[in-house]
Amino acid sequence: MHGAASAVTFVVLLGVVPALAQQSPGMIPKPEQPAAIPSTTHHSAKRVAHVAAARKIAATTVGTNSAEPAKSEPPAAASQISPADRLKIQSALLWSGDYTGSVGGDDPMLAAVRNYQKRARARVTGVLTPGERANLLAAAKSHEDEFGWTVVMDPATGVRIGLPTKLVSQVRDAPHGTRWSSAHGEVQVETFRLKEANLKLGALFEQQKKEPATRKVESSSLRDDGFLITGMQGLKIFSVRAYARAGEIRGFTLLFDQMMETIVAPATAAMVSAFSPFPERSSLFVDTAKSVEYGSGLIVSARGHIVTDRRLATGCQVIVAAGLGDADRIAEDKDNGLALLRVYGARKLSPLALSSDSLTKGEVTLVGIPDPKEQSSAIALTEIKARLADSNAIELRQPVPMAGFSGAAALDAQGQFVGMMQMRNFVLASTEPAAPPVRLITATAIRDFLAAQNVGTASHAGNAKDSVVRIICVRK
User: Fold this and answer.
1) One CATH from 3.40.50.12280, 3.40.630.30, 3.30.70.420, 2.40.10.120 for 292-474
2) CA-to-CA distance for 107 and 71, rounded, in angstroms?
3) What are the helix (H) ranges across 323-453?
4) What is the pTM of this model?
5) Which long-range contacts (CB under 8 A, 24 or more apart) does 200-205 make?
6) For 346-401, how does the pLDDT look when each residue is reduced to its tens digit (9 = 90+)?
7) 3-state secondary structure of 436
8) Which sequence spans correspond to the domains of the chain?
9) 354 — phi, psi (to 5°)?
């Protein structure tokens, strides 16, 4: 397979948002779509046809991915869809390339359904019929089975990304984000997040064209808000896609063997459609299963008891409470997702006072300690503004990295502790989430858990921020 042909493929797959029927700022109009919705198949002939058809598209620019919810209210029919079903349908539309964000202020789900109906040459209403929904979800199930397709948030960078988890099953930390790869590195996906104060977009563009030295650039495009670079890296096809906003650069790099092109092409197109560098709504967070993982915990007794996220403290060979020493895991609450740790030795601690009342809705501030690579100092508290919604779901105000925040304190407008934040990760490759991506474990649930373990808590409220501590889990 020739390098030039491969570069054309990548310009197509990574330079175009393929499902936009209308012109939209920062996006490229899609080519004419086939009449029927094609289903994914294992036959190589159809895969080759998929790549060949894509090569006919000309693409020379890159624009900000705007596949995000509009601020307007969704139509009545869309509002009747449950949150779980809405996310499941959205993921299916992302794979098919129909979910591209709002167009002219429309709700993005409405626009996506219209795109889907146009391609199917059905009546364009913006509301899926039972038959259309069944066909769409059946196709999504096929993609899940074949590729392990799932749409998740990367906690290290804050980006939303669609992943073919069966192609990239290995997950590791990366210098500026997260790296997913196949067992032997044939396919690699790596996210990154950089501060423009340290490296400007244009400088990063020039750097990425030259590093590593084995890269041969065959196509590149730089705009004020992003860039796209494609070409060959040794015997692999590569692409780097980046976007700049609010002093940050976020993006991802895709690298795969030439012989994998016909296999990777369908998943690549879906990844471009699903990728959002600055998402307005959270998806489930990807479970990175790092050998060393960072989180936050809350000191709840003067005797050294600490409450944290149960998932964070699972499978650890060693647990460390930064500044306090090694910690033992002594109890857990599976239903509420809590783990109780204890550090020993005389020291001055600032235990948290647990109120009997919890906030039901409203503004909250999340106070935690980010992953070390997200901050210049060794240990520093960071605050994130959010809102507590129905079913204890926490809605983030901004698309920020969340690595290290699971187990953080949630404070109300008066600075009083109302609960602990927990990030929910996907377990199986699935388009249907089981719980909100970020949720609140209430102060009442924590107090009841501690009472069951005969742990006495502080009776006088101090500064809740003084009770937050970094938790480090070291796995095999």
Assistant:
1) 2.40.10.120
2) 8
3) 443-452
4) 0.66
5) 201/226, 201/227, 201/242, 201/244, 201/249, 204/242, 204/249, 205/229, 205/242
6) 678 888 888 666 667 888 999 999 888 765 555 688 888 888 888 888 888 777 77
7) coil
8) 3-274, 292-474
9) -100, 115
